[in-house]
Amino acid sequence: MESDEELIRRTLAGGNHHYGVLIQRYADYLFGLGMRLTAGNRELAEDISQQSFLKSYTYLKSFDARKTYKHWLTGIAVNCFKDIRLKEQRYAPLDDTNEASYSPRLEENSDFFNLIQPLDDNEKIMFTLKYVYDYRTQEIADVLGLKTGTVKSKISRALEKLK
Amino acid sequence: MTSIGAIIEQEKAVSYDQRNKQLFSFYTLTLIAQEQASRRLKKRAGISLLLIVSFLLLFLAPISSLIEGFVASLSTLDIIDIFKLGVLNYGLVFIFYKFLKKRSIF
C-alpha cells in the first residue's frame, strides 16, 4: 500500500487519480468526524467531508510533510465545520419565520450526540478528538493551531460541563 | 444513567460509512477538475485581455510616432539587419511561449 506522502507527491506531479486513492482512504474517517461534530446530520457531514477534500487539494502544495496527512486533513475538516456553523448562525433569523423549513435526518444512536450537546463548537471538537479519536493534547493543539495549555484548559472545562 | 466513559466507548464502536466511496471520490475529482478548468480559463482570459489591451495601446498611444520612425528606417535595412530582426522576433516569441507554457497558461 502506498503511503500518503507518496500519493501526495504523485498527485502534485500531475496524477489526479492518485488523489482519488487518498479520498477513498479517508472518506469514512472524515464522514465519521463530520457526523460526530454535527450530531448525526448526514448531509452536513457529507458536505464537510467533500469541502475538506476540495480544500486539501487546493492547498496540497503547502502540505508540510513533517505532519501526517490525516492530522492536516482533520484541521481542514474542523475549519469546514466551523465555517458551516458560522453560515448557519448567519442565516438563523430565517428559522424564526413560520415558513416550512428543511429538517435534516439525524442518526439514531444519539447518546453521544446528547452528551456533547451542552458543549460549544470548540469544546465539541476537542472533546471528540481527545476521547473518541484518542488524539494527544499536543496533536489537538497542532491540528487546531492552539497552545497545548489552551487545549488542556478547554478540555477540562468541557469535562466540568458534562459532569 | 450511562457514564461518560461508557457512552464514549459505545461511540468508539460505531462506524460511520460514507455512502458509495467510489462515486464520492469520482464526484470530488470531477469537482476538482472543474475548478482547475475554470481557473485555467480565467487565466487565459486575463492574458488575452492583457494582450489585446497592449496591442491597442501600442497602436493608439503616442508610441505610434516611434513606430513610424522605426518603419521609416526600414528602407535603409540590408539583408543582415532583416535577418537579425527575424532572429530577435522569433526569439522573443519563443521566450514568451515558454513562459506561458511554464505557467500552464497555454
Automatic annotation (TrEMBL), chain A:
<feature type="domain" description="RNA polymerase sigma factor 70 region 4 type 2">
    <location>
        <begin position="115"/>
        <end position="162"/>
    </location>
</feature>
<dbReference type="Pfam" id="PF04542">
    <property type="entry name" value="Sigma70_r2"/>
</dbReference>
<dbReference type="Pfam" id="PF08281">
    <property type="entry name" value="Sigma70_r4_2"/>
</dbReference>
<comment type="similarity">
    <text>Belongs to the sigma-70 factor family. ECF subfamily.</text>
</comment>
<dbReference type="InterPro" id="IPR007627">
    <property type="entry name" value="RNA_pol_sigma70_r2"/>
</dbReference>
<dbReference type="GO" id="GO:0003677">
    <property type="term" value="F:DNA binding"/>
</dbReference>
<dbReference type="InterPro" id="IPR036388">
    <property type="entry name" value="WH-like_DNA-bd_sf"/>
</dbReference>
<dbReference type="InterPro" id="IPR014284">
    <property type="entry name" value="RNA_pol_sigma-70_dom"/>
</dbReference>
<dbReference type="GO" id="GO:0016987">
    <property type="term" value="F:sigma factor activity"/>
</dbReference>
<keyword id="KW-0805">Transcription regulation</keyword>
<dbReference type="InterPro" id="IPR013249">
    <property type="entry name" value="RNA_pol_sigma70_r4_t2"/>
</dbReference>
<feature type="domain" description="RNA polymerase sigma-70 region 2">
    <location>
        <begin position="22"/>
        <end position="90"/>
    </location>
</feature>
<protein>
    <submittedName>
        <fullName>Sigma-70 family RNA polymerase sigma factor</fullName>
    </submittedName>
</protein>
<dbReference type="InterPro" id="IPR013325">
    <property type="entry name" value="RNA_pol_sigma_r2"/>
</dbReference>
<dbReference type="GO" id="GO:0006352">
    <property type="term" value="P:DNA-templated transcription initiation"/>
</dbReference>
<dbReference type="InterPro" id="IPR039425">
    <property type="entry name" value="RNA_pol_sigma-70-like"/>
</dbReference>
<dbReference type="InterPro" id="IPR013324">
    <property type="entry name" value="RNA_pol_sigma_r3/r4-like"/>
</dbReference>
<keyword id="KW-0731">Sigma factor</keyword>
<keyword id="KW-0804">Transcription</keyword>
Automatic annotation (TrEMBL), chain B:
<keyword id="KW-0812">Transmembrane</keyword>
<keyword id="KW-0472">Membrane</keyword>
<keyword id="KW-1133">Transmembrane helix</keyword>
<protein>
    <submittedName>
        <fullName>Uncharacterized protein</fullName>
    </submittedName>
</protein>
<feature type="transmembrane region" description="Helical">
    <location>
        <begin position="47"/>
        <end position="67"/>
    </location>
</feature>
<feature type="transmembrane region" description="Helical">
    <location>
        <begin position="79"/>
        <end position="100"/>
    </location>
</feature>
